[in-house]
Amino acid sequence: MSKRVPPPPPGFEDLSVDEQIDFVQSLWDRITATAEQVPVPEWHRQIIQERVAPYHANPTAGRPWADARADIARKLRDR
Fold first, then answer.
1. What does the pLDDT read at residue 62?
2. Average model confidence (pLDDT) for the chain?
3. How far apart, in Å, are the Cα atoms of 74 and each of 61, 62, 71?
4. Cβ distance 23 to 15 under 8 Å?
5. What is the model's pTM?
6. Do the Cβ atoms of 12 and 20 come closer than 8 Å?
7. Helix ranges restricted to H, 1-79
């Protein structure tokens, strides 16, 4: 059963796409200001646990984010 989505506020449709995105981002910023009140579904928690488990099993198997990011940037540059 899906929830009814309320219509956008008056004037929203008159905004440019960039302005609409800015508006939605500002709403999200307000929500995340009280992140502890945002409910997290149990299935999200399970996925996080599944993804973190390999790290906990072998924390030295990974590599620093800076190295991974540099590799990604290099691959994108070389395209």
1. 86
2. 93
3. 22, 19, 5
4. yes
5. 0.50
6. yes
7. 17-32, 42-57, 65-77
Do residues 38 and 31 make contact, with C-beta atoms less than 8 angstroms apart?
yes
CA atoms within 13 Å, Cβ hemisphere of 34 = 6
Q: What local confidence, expressed as pLDDT, does residue 35 receive? A: 87
Cα–Cα nearest to 12, from 26, 28, 30, 24: 24
In the chain, domain spans:
12-77
Q: Which of 30, 29, 11 is nearest to 20 (CA)?
A: 11
* 1: pLDDT strictly greater than 80: no
Question: Which token pair is 58?
Answer: 């072998």
